[in-house]
Design goal:
Distance between the termini: 47 Å
Number of helices: 3
Oligomer: single chain
Number of strands: 6
Structural class: alpha+beta
Shape: globular
Largest sheet: 4 strands, mixed
Length: about 140
C-alpha cells in the first residue's frame, strides 16, 4: 500500500489545515464582486430583499460568481424562463452587513447549484461578525 508508512496528521493538525483553507476561500470571496438575486416581494426592485434559503434553522443568502452560475441555478429550479433581477455587490458586504440584518443566524451560499464546486460560508466566527456567529457568547446561537 503506497504511503502506508507515512504518518497521518492528527485530528488537530487536520482541523487547523481546514481552517486555513476556509480562511483563504473566505478572503477570496470577500474581495470578489458577486451576483445576488432579489427575492420575490412587494414594491420596486430597490425595496426587494435578497434571495435566501433556510436550512436547519440557518438562513443563507444566495450569491453567484457570475451570470452562468446564476443561470445554472435558475435551470435547477425549473425557472430559467423567469426574468431574474439581481445586484452586484462585493462579497464582503454579505457577511458583514446583510447577514447581521437578517435577524437570525445567516450565512452565504455561493454557487449553490454547482454541487461540490459551490461554497457555503456559515454564520461562524471569522465569517460573520462575532456577535452574530452561531454559538458565540451573546451571539445568534445563544438565541436559537
Amino acid at each position: 500500500m503506497a504511503g502506508a508508512d507515512q504518518p497521518r496528521p492528527d485530528a488537530g493538525e487536520e482541523t487547523e489545515r481546514r481552517r486555513r483553507v476556509f480562511a483563504v476561500l473566505l478572503g477570496e470571496f470577500r474581495r470578489t464582486p458577486v451576483l445576488v438575486p432579489l427575492g420575490d416581494g412587494p414594491g420596486p426592485d430597490a425595496e426587494r430583499g435578497l434571495l435566501t434559503a433556510d436550512l436547519g434553522g440557518v438562513r443563507f443568502i444566495l450569491a453567484f460568481s457570475d451570470e452562468q452560475a446564476l443561470a445554472r441555478y435558475t435551470v435547477a429550479r425549473g425557472e430559467a424562463a423567469r426574468k431574474w433581477r439581481y445586484r452586484t455587490v462585493l462579497g464582503a458586504r454579505l457577511p458583514d452587513a446583510a447577514a447581521p440584518a437578517a435577524g437570525v443566524p445567516c450565512g452565504v451560499a455561493l454557487d449553490c447549484a454547482d454541487g461540490e464546486d459551490g461554497m457555503v460560508f456559515p454564520p461562524v466566527r471569522g465569517a460573520v461578525p462575532d456577535a452574530m456567529a452561531v454559538g458565540a457568547d451573546g451571539g445568534a446561537g445563544d438565541h436559537a
